[in-house]
Every structure is written in C-alpha cells, then in structure tokens.
Amino acid sequence: MRPAVMPTGDGTRPRLRARAQARTRTQDDVLAELCGVALATLARSDQRRHGEAYLRGLLRARGRKSIRNIAGLAGGAAPEQSLHHFVSSSPWDWRPMRQALAHHLVRTLAPQAWVVRPMVIPKAGENSVGVERRFFAEAGQVLNAQQAVGVWAASAYRSAPVNWRLLLSEAWLGDPVRRGQAAIPDAVRTETPGECAVEAYAGMMRDWGLPVRPLVLDAREPDALAALHRLRACGVPVLARVSGSLRLAVSDSPLSGRETRLVPASLVMAGARELRRPVIWRHDPGSDALGTSLTAGVRVGLPVAQGGAGRGRLREMLLVGMGENADRWPAELWLTDLVNVAPATLVRLSGLLHRVDRDFTCVADRVGIRDFTGRSFGGWHRHTTLASVAHAVALLTPPADPAGDDGACLPGRDSGPGGAGRRGR
Fold first, then answer.
1. What is the pTM of this model?
2. Average pLDDT for the chain
3. 105 exposure class (CB count in 10 Å sphere: 0-12, 13-18, 19+)
C-alpha cells in the first residue's frame, strides 16, 4: 500500500509536487486522455482507430492539415481512403463528441465564461458547403468564404472551442441540387449571423447539461438587438460588445430626461464622460502585472419592438464604456445584464474575446480548424469537431519550458490578429 502524502503546514510541498508531475505529461499522455474522453463516443473500434490517427495527423502533420498529409503519417493510400470516408461520409454523430469534450474542459479548464466567436474560412472554389461571396466588415472586403460560429470555453489563461455552427444562406438551402450534393439535413434552415450565434450557444446549453457561465460575444451585427433579446430569453448572463449605433433607452442620469427616447449608444456614453473612473485589474491571475482602464456605466433599457413600431417595454441593462485613452472615449461599448458586477470583473470578462482570438491563431489554426476541403455538411462538422479535440490536446500539453509561454501558443506562432489569417483551399 502506498503511504499517504503528509501535507506541510501551508500545503506548499504537495502543490509543487503536483505541478512538477503535471509538467512531465507529454503530448502523448494528453492525447491518450482526450482519446479516452472524446473517441469513447464512437461505437466501433475501427472508428476509434481512425479518430486517433486523424488527431495525430492534425497535431503533427506539417503544413496544411489535408487528409493526404494526415494519412501520410500512417503511410500508404489505404489510410487516406479510410480517413476520407471516416470524416466525409461515415454516419457517426459529432454532437456526443463535442458534449464529452465540453464537459472535460469544464473540469480541466475551469472556464470563467462561454465566448462566441465567428470564423471566416476563405475558399478558392464554389463547391465547399456554405461557400459564397460575402462582404466581411472586419476584413473590409468581399471574400469567397464559408462563415461559421464557434462557442469557446474561456479562462484568463486558455480557451478552447466546444461547439460549431455553419452559416448557410438561402442560395444553398433553397437549391435542391447543391443541398443534396452537400447532404445538408432537411432540418437545417437559413439564419442571420446573430441567429447562428444564438443557436450555437443555446443548443449546447439546452441539451448538454453544462454549467451556466456568463456569455461573452461581439454583437455588432445589424441584427444585434434581436440576438440580445433571444439570449436574454435563455436566462444566461450576457456581456456583449455593441455598436455605437445601437439605439437604447436611457433610464438614469446623466441623461435622465430622455427615458422615452431611443438614443444611440455612442451618444449615451458620450454624455457619461464625467462618470469615468479608473479601474485597476490584473492581466494574468498568475502574475503581478496590472492594467488600468477607464470605465463608465449607464443603466439603459433594451427596447422590445412591437408591431414594427420600434417601441415597447424596456429591459434594464448596463451600458459600459471602456478605454485606456481619455482622449479617445470610449474605445469599446459593452451591454450587459450583470448590472451589479464590479467594473474590474467586467473588464476581465471583456478581455476573454482577445484570449479566444489569440488561441484561435496560436492553436486552432495550427491544428487545421479551417483546413477541411470536402463539400459535405457532415464532413465539415466532423473535421471541426476533431480539430477542436486536437486544439484541446495542444492546449493542455504542458510547455517544454515552464518559465516560457503559458502553453496557449505552439512554437513558431503567428503574430497577427486571430481569424484574419490564411486563405483556405
């Protein structure tokens, strides 16, 4: 029988020993653990073997994570054909795997929030499911691309995707030929970007038994108001970055005389300049580095349109301005129903958008989240699910140098902003 470890007075020695043991875990150890969690949802042993081979390829194949490059690690043409069938046309359901991954990340990552992040996948051709020419405001140009939404489990240290939803237009869903070629299920309907974001989140929270955490998202799309109402109906606390043009009803000073008027958020916050206060917050819970932001909050009403009149009952929320430069106020506008939460906490939660952007570039893109080249709806979802598991493996593998990076970025990471990177094939 192994003797029990006796704790020291302050518990330091067992904690240090646990950290040292965690750092000795290799990528193979973490991969084996995640295979036990995620691939256990597959019914057949051959599917589990193909799944492990695919994950190894996503993590270790050089260059773009095409099925050919992934199969090259296993060798021969037969693995390529098997892996192509496993991802593109095998009937296994990806949702149980995502659910298992989400619960594992809740245990290991201790997420502070769920973060919704869009993903743009530029394409050269026209056959990939959902691809079409669209204008993307963030890129400032028209792109031939797929558009999707991911839901991420996020903490201050690390973040990982757990669910994905592909945005499909009427041009795809209303064309029986294209719909049939991509094997798009009959239940899939066209959505706006806001509806796609809400459904990506609401579906997993409704069916997977996950803990409630604040939902952080960028809601500057034209349909932001409808999306915010749908999210509030889900009963989850929301922190949403909003556009200055979003019209809100002011319910307290300094604009208390305008309760019955809908005012653009930018004007509401411009009138709250004198309410700004500095907030000191910690960049990283594990370090002594501090940041300072200016914040101001104004209670507002979120109008509910009735009969297209643009007026209706109001739902109280807090409009928060954030910025670091007093001359450029505000840098960002956020809307939340966390009306009694400390400003420093709201600043930290808002920073999780940047955390997810960083991990998208440093990890998700490097394990091939945007590299699927097939045309099938199911194939796209199976690939993004397996790439999400590979992301978790890379994220949870301890860094080779404990004094170096926090493990969120792989060696040779990109320095550019997340999501604006490579063109898919």
1. 0.85
2. 84
3. buried
